[in-house]
């Protein structure tokens, strides 16, 4: 089977500090894949390299056979890859509704329409996406005033508005309460399965990962030290030493 | 529907203004003509400031290009107004597109400095190219069609052009394009990741701003029967910038109120004291310290305050 996303020999360093060291990873269509690792392991850098936010020093990233290196984010999104961010990335002064509406406008290439009233476009599609992530009631609120967990949900709706085939979520439950985490994970899994998406997400919370991922890669000091099915990874001696051990063994 | 309310309110404002010449006061009509021109100028600048979040310090360049080009085409080349005015506006837009191409590569203070640098170049051209622009002496004796030679005729002409310009800007700012621009202003990184080429969006906004700034400049030159190099100087850019800030950058209509307030204040102040720059300094202090959202922000806060008090009693 050919990979949907293929990453080969990716390197990135910042002023001598190697943040990504020879990372290779193949992602099959429909796979739910988690990249785990303690804070500072290089998860976000890895994500930024895939989505065109950063340019790797070396290595190749291809999506459905197309080379992504050097493409700006807006071109990568148009190929069918959408992402969320670890630190919340929304339009704080727009309403919740407009946050998603703009993403739909951009997806349809209507950002160059100087005549049609923006607020009248994609009202149904926006309402559906807000319903899907459980924000229908908050549609008219100012996005920056939502609770942290709800802003994360909003980011998910924004990412989904781009109609991606590959969804990249950077720590989708970071900063959430245990209840919010459980609800979010269940909702992400349902949405991904229902839409037939491929999911790559980073996470530092082990419980979250085992609840959703079909395959797991462990990143440590910028390097993938193990990759495979959850049980294989959980029992990997190296992983236990560098990762599970540090967390007092709740896994 | 808010759109119908906006339409009705605008129609009433235009109608009331149209009645102004009935007062018989030449002073009032002239003052209103000036305020209308500055309102369009300020609104055009706010497409860059309010809608892309970058401060342009060189907007007078497009005002001057529109003003000089219209004046020169009308007078030196004897073109009819129906050709001169659109040609001047297009020229201002083209120069804005060329300058914007470089400026939108930068943001914040670097963007502001680059817009200023280009504006000074435009000023330099107006100053040095004496045989075409009149240089230091200004370009005077603009030929106007007989219909516009009278101050009331010119007022109605200005009212019609400014109303059309404001309507066009309203449509653009509330379009899908305008909403996406706000998203770019609020979070350019996120906007990039929903598939928006943020630099090209800002470039388009800059061009729109320059085009309408040029229209305001053309109206200004014809009104004064002349263009002068001061109109291209950076102080003119600062003046319109203050109008925008005073009115409020996060509201479409804010700059209109800012332009009216500043221009009227300046006119009245000049009748009593030569110290307008001092008064202007005080106005700036007030904006920075107590009116960060401008007059429109003040109105909104007042409304919210009144609403809260009513809720309590």
Protein model, in words:
The complex is a heterodimer of chains A (251) and B (313). With 251 residues, chain A is of the alpha/beta class. Chain A folds into 2 domains: 1-78 and 166-176 and 198-251, Rossmann fold (3-Layer(aba) Sandwich); 81-163, P-loop containing nucleotide triphosphate hydrolases (Rossmann fold), CATH 3.40.50.300. Chain A contains 9 helices and 10 strands. Chain A has helices spanning 43-50, 73-79, 96-107, 123-132, 148-161, 178-195, 206-212, 230-234, 237-244, and strands at 5-14, 17-27, 32-36, 58-63, 66-67, 81-83, 166-170, 198-203, 215-220, 223-228. In chain A, strand 7, helix 6 and strand 8 form a beta-alpha-beta unit. In chain A, helix 3 (96-107) crosses helix 4 (123-132), helix 3 (96-107) packs parallel to helix 5 (148-161) and helix 4 crosses helix 5. The longest helix of chain A has 18 residues, at 178-195. Chain A is globular, with a radius of gyration of 18 Å. The two termini of chain A are 32 Å apart. Chain B is mainly alpha-helical and 313 residues long. Chain B has one domain. Chain B contains 15 helices and 2 strands. Chain B has a two-stranded antiparallel sheet with strand order 1-2. The relative contact order of chain B is 0.17. The interface between A and B is medium-sized, with 37 and 27 residues.
Topology:
The complex is a heterodimer of chains A (251) and B (313).
Chain A: E1 5-14, E2 17-27, E3 32-36, H1 43-50, E4 58-63, E5 66-67, H2 73-79, E6 81-83, H3 96-107, H4 123-132, H5 148-161, E7 166-170, H6 178-195, E8 198-203, H7 206-212, E9 215-220, E10 223-228, H8 230-234, H9 237-244
Chain B: H1 2-19, H2 26-52, H3 60-75, H4 81-103, H5 108-128, H6 130-133, E1 139-140, H7 146-149, H8 151-173, H9 176-186, H10 188-192, H11 198-224, E2 226-227, H12 234-247, H13 254-272, H14 276-290, H15 294-312
Number of strands of chain B: 2
**Low-confidence parts of chain B, pLDDT < 50 over ≥5 residues?**
none
Mean pLDDT of chain B: 93
Structure annotation, total helices of chain B: 15
Pair with the most extensive interface? A-B, 37 and 27 residues
Mean pLDDT of chain A: 89
CATH topology name of the largest domain in chain A: Rossmann fold
Q: Element order, helices and strands of chain A?
A: EEEHEEHEHHHEHEHEEHH
Proportion in helices of chain B? over 70%
What structural class should be given to the helix and strand makeup of chain B? Answer: mainly alpha
**Helical percentage of chain A:** 25-40%
Which radius of gyration of chain A do the C-alpha atoms yield? 18 Å
Strand content of chain A: 15-25%
Structural class of chain A: alpha/beta
Oligomer status? heterodimer
| Percentage of β-strand residues of chain B | under 5%
